[in-house]
Amino acid sequence: MRRTILKLAGLAAIAAVLGGCAASGAKYQEVASSMPSLKPGEGRIYFLRSSSIVGAAIQPDIRLNGQVVGVSKPGGFFYVDRSAGTYAAATSTEVEKSASFALAAGETKYLRTTPSIGVLVGRIVVEIESPEKARAELPSLSYTGGDKVSAK
């Protein structure tokens, strides 16, 4: 009995620690109406990550053309508006993972970050996501952006 109680207490402690790793904040529906309209010549890039305990502690910076624009947090999303052009989004832990894409004026791109197994530590892979899948998942995610994300 005592061993069972200790196991349950240990699991509860692990869950509490990992729960602190997940994104918190306003859900997509709460912030969508306050998102600014695109400026002429710009497109929008959403970064999203599903909520999962797998790899929850791995939260690297996300860089767009070398500039940090946010952090990959489980259960979170943010967006940046950028001029039309060619971009590379990347994360790195033990290795760098990136996705390259072209952004047209008025276009919206969705990039998913996903944990993957690494040799020494986990990795976060960046991939282009289909608009349909991304828009279906966004309502369940928390906004993790801020002034840092808006900086160009």
- Work out the helix count: 4
Summing up helix and strand content along with how strands pair, one would put the structural category as alpha+beta
Overall pLDDT metric: 82
* Helical proportion, percent range: 10-25%
Give me the CATH fold name.
Immunoglobulin-like
How many individual β-strands?
9
Shape type: globular
Distance between the termini: 58 Å
Radius of gyration: 17 Å
CATH architectural arrangement: Sandwich
CATH class: Mainly Beta
* Main β-sheet description: 5 strands, mixed
| Widest sheet: strand ordering | 8-7-1-4-9
- Strand-residue proportion: 35-45%
In the residues, how many domains can be counted?
1
Give the quaternary arrangement of the chains: single chain
Provide an overview of this structure:
It is a single chain. Helices cover 22% and strands 39% of the residues. It has helices at 2-19, 28-32, 131-137, 147-150, and strands at residues 42-49, 61-64, 67-71, 76-83, 85-92, 96-103, 108-116, 123-129, 142-143. The chain starts with a helix and ends with a helix. The model is unreliable at 4-20 and 147-152 (pLDDT under 50).
Please outline what is shown here:
This protein is 22% helix and 39% strand. It has 152 residues and is α+β, with helices and mostly antiparallel strands.
SSE arrangement:
Layout: H1 2-19, H2 28-32, E1 42-49, E2 61-64, E3 67-71, E4 76-83, E5 85-92, E6 96-103, E7 108-116, E8 123-129, H3 131-137, E9 142-143, H4 147-150
Parallel strand pairs: 1-7, 4-9
Antiparallel strand pairs: 1-4, 2-3, 2-5, 5-6, 7-8
